[in-house]
Design a protein that fits this description.
mainly alpha, about 220 residues, about 70% helix
């Protein structure tokens, strides 16, 4: 009975992660499918680029919430003891189900985003301290480089290092997962990395001065 209930909750986590926030918001309010514009990615960064700050921030918050909520579906069970290995393992499965839902959403033809915001909500629910340090790494990298994609990859690579060497985490499944995150971010950002190597990746315009912002807009539209 518990196995069937676990499967049901995992399916629910996937369906929750599958909610295509940016696609639905873009189509309903702006008449735009953001997967056909900009980077053609259904994430918050492209939503900001195509739909503007208000819509993009809404997408970001809800996508983070999806990951956080999916992990907390474990509260529907009464047979896992918090902080035990089994508890953490099932939390990880729920979070992974949500990320897979975000990347391959059933509602819109399995074409979604990269899953970074949903991943953020997911790990925030499991290990908030490590996650907040990684957010700091992301922000610092973003301010220096102006590249959201590069900042995401570097923050992802810092996750296992911070988890193991700073917070001394020894839970095998959590350590393994942190390593998988690094590989997953490389996979989902493959095209971004290729553009970075060709110096064709778009920068975050909102972090630039007005003059540099206009120059970057011209470069992106060229």
């Amino acid at each position: 009975m518990a196995i069937l209930f676990n499967v049901s909750i995992l399916i629910l986590a996937y369906l929750l992660g599958s909610i295509p926030t940016s696609v639905w918001l873009g189509k309903k309010l702006y008449g735009v499918d953001i997967r056909e514009h900009g980077s053609k990615n259904a994430g918050s960064t492209n939503a900001i680029r195509i739909l503007g700050w208000k819509a993009g921030l809404t997408v970001l918050i809800f996508d983070v919430f999806k990951g956080w909520m999916a992990v907390n579906l474990i509260r529907l069970t009464n047979y896992y003891i918090p902080e035990t290995g089994d508890y953490i393992n099932f939390q990880l499965l729920l979070g992974i189900a949500a990320i897979m839902g975000h990347i391959f959403p059933i509602y819109v033809g399995f074409k979604g985003g990269k899953g970074v915001a949903t991943l953020l909500g997911f790990v925030l629910a499991i290990d908030p301290y490590t996650t907040l340090v990684c957010v700091g790494v992301f922000i610092i990298t973003l301010v220096i480089t102006k590249y959201v994609s590069l900042s995401s990859v570097i923050a992802g690579f810092s996750f296992p290092i911070i988890l193991v060497f700073i917070f001394k985490t020894t839970t095998p499944s959590l350590v393994l997962f942190s390593l998988i995150v690094s590989v997953l971010l490389l996979f989902t950002h493959q095209k971004n990395i290729e553009r970075l190597l060709r110096n064709e990746e778009n920068k975050a315009l909102f972090l630039m001065s007005k003059r540099r912002r206009e120059a970057e807009r011209l470069r992106q539209s060229a």
